[in-house]
Design brief:
Rossmann fold; rod-shaped; alpha/beta; seven-stranded mixed beta sheet; 2 domains
Length: 352
């Protein structure tokens, strides 16, 4: 038996009970009649994951296709298992559920309860024919599981239990969606063929062949706290929580990165702002000094201009004085020349 925690996919823990009894079998073989979805509520999913192989049978075409995709190592049969001597049967598909059935009255009840229903024609075969055509089963069937929504008797009547001798048989034993027993018609088929009833878990009945009575004790009680298992739904939630935790840690790390970057940007921005403020203060002081210097230069210029005007006025006065002096000199010169001419004429007149 694997040391790993067993993951249960079955609706009522049937796979936990079966693995408790059959987990020691290597490369086991099973037949799953009414296999339905390959994962959701599957009794045989855990067995397939642990290396078992076998035959998955379902009359709903969508489920048969999913089984082929999910279990490529198995043989998948799309047919209704019945003891009727026909090639095809009308199958009542209760859409998007595991309630589809061969029984019209059962389908009527589901339809009255509000479920969508449609009739399809599907191949009809016996379980003997399916097993005879199989290349997987070899000489041993370790597990037969039957869940066909009220048609279990038809399946068991189509199967030679004394010939095939599956070790363990599990059959749904209540009417669909009720707790009303439905095993009276088919229970003798098993007990008369050398099978011992071991357990009713509230939904299904478990039987062991007389050749393997050593399994009776392990098949005598339903799944419980002593079984090391987890529900698939629990594992899914845990994985989602782990994923969410990882995403939260990643988001926190990204937030820290951005926070650190933001702090760096903020510090750089503050430094730049302080530098800009210092530069502004320096520029303001320089501007004040320049304004004071300009003011001094302007005052000085005004003084120079005033001095220039004073000198220009002084020059103009000097020029006027010079002109006046020059006129006086010219006048004195003319007077001197006139006296000199008169004096010369007077001297010349005395000489003559």
């Amino acid at each position: 038996m694997s040391d790993e925690t067993f993951i249960s996919y079955a609706q009522n823990g049937e796979d936990v009970v079966l693995w408790r009894a059959l987990g020691h079998v290597t490369d086991g073989r099973y037949v799953d009649v009414g296999a339905c979805d390959p994962v959701d509520l599957s009794v045989t999913k855990a067995f397939y994951d642990r290396g078992w192989r076998g035959i998955d049978i379902d009359a709903v075409p969508e489920y048969a296709e999913r089984l082929r995709d999910a279990r490529p190592g198995n043989e998948v049969v799309h047919a209704a298992i019945t003891d009727r001597d026909v090639d095809t049967v009308t199958f009542h598909q209760v859409v998007d559920t595991g309630l589809s059935t061969l029984l019209g009255e059962t389908a009527d009840e589901h339809e009255r309860a509000g479920f969508a229903r449609r009739e399809i024609s599907v191949p009809a075969v016996t379980l003997d024919e399916v097993c005879e055509a199989s290349s997987l089963l070899g000489g041993e069937i370790h597990l037969l599981k039957v869940d066909v929504e009220g048609a279990e008797a038809e399946v068991l009547r189509s199967f030679d239990l004394r010939r095939w001798r599956p070790w363990v048989v599990v059959v749904e034993a209540t009417r669909p969606l009720t707790t009303e027993p439905s095993f009276e018609d088919w229970d003798p088929l098993l007990t008369d063929a050398g099978y011992t009833f071991t357990l009713f878990d509230g939904l299904s009945r478990f039987y062991v062949s007389d050749e393997h009575t050593d399994l009776i004790d392990r098949l005598s009680y339903p799944s419980c706290a002593l079984d090391d298992y987890k529900r698939f739904e629990q594992v899914t939630v845990e994985e989602q929580l782990v994923h969410a935790h990882e995403q939260a840690e990643q988001a926190a790390a990204e937030v820290n990165v951005w926070r650190n970057r933001s702090v760096g940007f903020w510090a750089e921005a503050v430094a730049r702002a302080q530098e800009s403020e210092n530069n502004a203060r320096i520029a303001a002081r320089d501007a004040q000094r320049l304004q004071a210097q300009i003011k001094r230069l302007r005052t000085r210029l005004e003084a120079v201009q005033a001095e220039r005007r004073r000198l220009r006025n002084k020059t103009q006065r000097l020029e006027t004085r010079v002109e006046s002096l020059q006129a006086r000199v010219d006048q004195h010169e003319r007077r001197f020349e006139a006296r000199a001419r008169r004096k010369v004429r007077g001297m010349l007149g005395r000489d003559s």
